Amino acid sequence: MRSMQFSMPKACAALCLVLSAFSGSLAEPILGDQQAAGVRALLPPRDVQAMDTPRDGGLSLTIRWQPPSGEEAGLLGYRIYRADSPNWEFRLVGQVDRNTMEYQNIPNDSIKVQMGKEYYYKVAAYDSLGEAMSEAVGPVKSRPTWFDIHRLPILVAIVLFFGSVLVFFRITKRGKGLFIRRIAGIAAMEEAVGRATELGRPVLYVPGIMDVDNIQTIASMVILVDVAKLAAQYDVPIIVPLNRAFVVPMAEESVRQGFLNAGRPDSYDPDNVRYLSDEQFAFTAGVNGIMVREKTAAHFFLGAFFAESLILSEMGFSTGAIQIAGTANIHQLPFFVVACDYTLIGEEFYAATAYISKDPQLLGPLKGADFMKVVIMALLVVGSLLELFGVHWLTGLLTLS
Amino acid sequence: MDFLWLTIAAAATLAIFSFLYKDNPFYKFAEHLFVGIASGYVVVIEYYNVFRPNLWDPLTAGSDFWLIIPLILGIFMFTRFFSRIAWLSRWSMAVIIGTYSGLAVIGFTEGDLLNQVRASLVPLISTEAAKKLASDPGLFTFLDFMSNPLLVIGFICILIYFFFSKEHQGTYGSLAKIGTGLLMIGFGAGYGYTVMTRMALLFDRLFFLCSDWLHLI
Amino acid sequence: MADDKQSWLNRMANLDKRWVFLCILLAVGFPLFFPIGLPMRPSQPVKDFYEVLQALPDGSMILLSGDYDPGTKAELYPQNVAILQQACKKHMKVVAIALWPTGPPMLERAFNEVAVGQYGYKYGVDYVNLGFKEGREAVMVEMGRSIRHAFPRDFYGTPISQIPLMDKVENYNSFPVLIDISAGYPGTKEFVQYTQGRFNITLLSAAPAVSVPEFSAYYQSRQISGMLTGIAGGAEYEALIGHPALSARAMDGISFGHLVIILFILLGNVFHFLGKRTSA
Amino acid sequence: MKRQIPLLITFFFGIFMIIQYFIPHHGVNEWGGRFQGWTIIVLAFAYVLGVANVLRISLEKVYRKEADWPFKLVTCISLVLMMGIGLVEGVGEDTFFVRRLYNQLYVPMGATMYSTLAFFIASAAYRAFRIRTWHAALLAVTAMLVMIGRIPIGQGIWSGFPRLSDWIMFEGPNMVGQRAILIGAALGAISTGLKMVFGIERSYLGSGD
After folding, report:
1. What is the least distance, in Å, from the CA of A330 to any CA of chain C?
2. A397 vs A232, residue with greater confidence
3. Which of A75, A164, A165, C52 has its CA 20 to 30 A from that of C37?
């Protein structure tokens, strides 16, 4: 039964092709044959229009039509024909079912559209006996679009954001607007390293499990410089286990830089930056081993974490270490919040670098993001009030298509 | 033969579970076996699904000579192992980082920033929900009525929490506190919801051991 | 005496976690032998998922992305099977891809079990498994332009041009709906960010419970049109399509696991506060 | 030179990916597709590089007879066997590679690794959900409400639990919280992305010339 349904349309199409071939030409309407056979005539589609497909790359045309007037119970669908001139032979481009009133002549069709060339189209309604062809419409030619106006809001948002970042660069460089509110997790970093020093045990820094093309890993590398500096100042070892080979040179560089910034480049021990394994759980097991065997006393989990977040922080808790976590992977935040002493939530994690270093290069983007938040809050207030009074233009402005 | 392989699978399963009691050689064996298998598997799949169809076949068939560029960049990756020319691998990394950073700027702006803000522009009070609450006062009609104000006001409170240029003090600080509370509710919900995922995984393994392997059920 | 009580409370408050482990094992394992068969009430995201698919005309073509691995199969494989049940009942043609290297064999297993085994689907005519492609977001965006360019061959190495089903496939526009079975990264979040709005796609997500809280924001904004919410969502969905199977079977054990955790949270607090009071 | 060229490459590819979004022109689109195709290939090499690293580091440990070296040997042997069998045999459904090695070794081990999380999530709940502050109270109470609302037993206790849990998740506080974090994280990601494209952030290049 199933296979019947699948093959029905094909059988009909084949039948139509045979019939139309019999009548002489693929393109000729065979109205006459039907009338001669005494069958009620199938009418052609109405209001056929051919146009350049809007907002496209310039290789497609769109054909639209209305169903034939009157009751068309036997109508199976429509066929679309094309020719370079209204008097030339029209060739079949494609066909659609009876419920579709639009066809796009796209690059995937066997008969493709060339940019800038003129074409004429006809649309035929067909049933099991034959087809009724519309008049030719055209000429129509396709043009490429150079800017998709519907995507303007995205461009505005990016330009606004990046523009504000650049403006705040200039302001912060002049030493103004440097204030950042206290972020508990970051303020506690020194406390954690200090605690490790008191106990005479190492610090552990895990920069997540993603590669260097992940933005969180990169942010984590910048924070690592500062944590390594703290460790160097307090003279405790810092162990950095890694699960991506590419991150190794970056992490080595960051730790070395941190020791250099603290004025103790000679204390840097390259053996403490360790590649463990690319495999998520093998890596997790390796880090667990370090926590248990080397009795690390301060744990930093800063970067992109996944399911291992809970195992690491649970294990870390059982060793009695003070733990600070930070990630923008929202799905893992609950576990860090529950199992760690401090957690940097989402954007706080990105803000950490700027907070610690007060470097204008890092403060600029942070202040730019704050500016965007003000814009969003204003949008929310205005938008929700406008919507309340049934005014939708702001929502419309932000809608892409 | 089937039973033998099932037993191997079951032994591997039990070896990994044994870690929960404490670290032991069986677990270590299973863990290292797993690393090897997983890594080997990826190489095979990359070869048949990416390297052959996307690079080697079109290149050798002569249908796309541009592919010589990614081939060279791919080989550059391996210069990491030779410190004298290791800098060449930066070129390959630059392609990856450039492409993904560019894509990310668009992806986050459209998917998260713009669409999420737009979806939050709801009428502060939904008249429909208000009518329902008036006609049928109850917990759930009240909660439905609260959805919109909570969305707008709660959203602003959390944004205030994430605003870094002002200290959390006074009324402003209280708003940020409300924001933190909402975040905590979200985290609690996240934790509670995730329990299901973890339990499902465990159930699956127990089912495998008791049913597929031992046919106890 | 007070000391005894104090130390007992302390011991309970800092119970060796292996006792907790044992309780969980027993709670989840017990219903295996004594199944109860608890009823499921479909929630809104699951209903939406079902209805979006149900509203499509019979015989439609759908795109299915199997982005999961053995580690998450417990929740997602039953969903995969159930999705195919609904799709096959409606004689839909299924084009499957994977952005996780571990996805294709999972998809294949589900196809063999449901599409081939129960509905007599033919490979290349009714369904196709295009296999895995490295590249994550880049593949997603590239598929918006040309799927055959991103996937020149299927999982078994057959060129796309030799697969009849692929004749009509150009890009996302060739499909009324995209279903993503998403275990993590890359997955539904990336499909939302990189393709849903950009190519105007109706996106359905089969997600593990761990992802659902985050996806709730996308669901509310309709960037995701429907969602299978973890294994409970899977069980609800199975009830909707009238095919209680893998997910439903797991729900008993999972329910008991939940109860034990709730009990532990309560007990943890009781011991904590009693301990504090005695010491004070 | 060794730093300038990578910066230029990053800028070129990054900016192309951005403008491509706004320009539907088929020429731009085609090149965008080509560049994405290249990235797919280069990334595949990166993956193989990761595997090569696993092999290299394991072998080093075996060679130097470091702690646990016999296990490292297990990794190397299983890796080579898995790879060899797969490359020779292919990935069809009836191969030894898929039927045995994937389905009966990889699948059960991967699934079990993950399933151990069921135990950790329970032990963390036991010790960490102690109501010491009002934050902790919110956390614990919501977690319990959501859990009870998600299981059929909860529905048996009070029919409103599932609806309450759904409201918290999909309309109420959870959804609002997730949305705000999403937007905050998006701002962080966009600004970092732009910094990379414009070469302001270049730590990924490491130091040196």
Report:
1. 7
2. A232
3. C52
User: pLDDT category, C280, cuts 50, 70, 90?
Assistant: low
CB-based contact, C157 to chain A, within 8 Å: no
The domain of A253 spans 181-357
Closest residue to B111, CB basis, from C21, C75, C192: C192
Residue A30 lies in a domain: yes
Mean pLDDT, chain A, integer: 83
pLDDT at position C181? 97
Kindly provide the b/e burial profile for residues C86-120, where b requires at least 16 CB atoms within 10 angstroms of the residue's own CB.
Answer: bbbbebbbbbbbbbbbbbbbbbbbbbeebbbeebe
Instruction: Indicate whether A13 pLDDT > 70.
Output: no
Measured CA to CA, the distance from residue B104 to residue D200 in angstroms comes to 16
Chain D: give the shortest CA distance to residue B161, in Å: 10
Q: How confident is the model at residue C1 (pLDDT cuts 50, 70, 90)?
A: low
Whether A107 and A201 map to the same domain: the answer is no
Asked, for residue A383, whether it belongs to a domain, the answer is no
Task: Give the dihedral sign, CA B57/B61/B66/B69.
Answer: positive
Are A188 and A318 contained in the same domain? yes
> In the prediction, which pLDDT does D206 show?
64
User: CA C214, CA A127: separation in Å to the nearest integer?
Assistant: 50
Domain spanning C44-244: CATH 3.40.50: yes
Question: Which of B53, B115, B201 is nearest residue C153 as measured by Cβ atoms?
Answer: B53
CATH number assigned to the domain comprising residue A195: 3.40.50
Cα separation, A70 vs A132, whole angstroms? 14
According to the model, what pLDDT value does residue B13 have? 94
Q: Do A115 and D26 touch (CB under 8 A)?
A: yes
Asked if residue B109 is part of any domain, the answer here is: no
Residues ≥6 apart with Cβ < 8 Å to A46: A65, A66, A67, A68, A69, A134
Which residues from A are below 8 Å from C119, CB to CB? 2
Q: Tell me if C17 and A318 make a contact (CB, 8 A cut-off).
A: yes
Whole-structure pTM value: 0.88
Cβ of C91 and A2 within 8 Å?
yes
Q: What is the pLDDT of residue A40?
A: 57
Residue B115 lies in a domain: no
- pLDDT for A12 beyond 50: no
Same domain, residue pair D60 and D90: no
**How sure is the predictor about C276, in pLDDT bands with cuts at 50, 70 and 90?**
confident
**Cα–Cα distance for residue pair B119/B116, rounded to 1 Å:** 5
Q: Is residue A169 assigned to a domain?
A: no
Question: How many structural domains are present in chain A?
Answer: 2
* Chain B closest-CA separation from residue C236 CA (Å): 14
Count how many domains chain D has: 3
The mean pLDDT value for C212-225 works out to 94
Nearest CA in chain D to C45: D170
Could you give the CA distance from residue A102 to residue A96 in angstroms, rounded to a whole number?
A: 8
Domain boundary among the residues D98, D115, D132 is at D115
CATH of residue A120's domain is: 2.60.40.10
Do D190 and A158 lie within an 8 Å CB cutoff? yes
Any domain includes B190: yes
**Is D200 domain-assigned?**
no
Say which of B52, B111, B119 has its CB closest to residue C220.
B119
Q: Place D145 in a pLDDT band, splitting at 50, 70 and 90.
A: very high
Q: Which of C28, C101, C213 sits opposite B203 (nearest CB)?
A: C28
User: Are A194 and A114 members of one domain?
Assistant: no
CB-CB under 8 Å, B109 with A380 = no
* Helix locations, D66-132, DSSP H: 69-89, 96, 107-115, 117-128
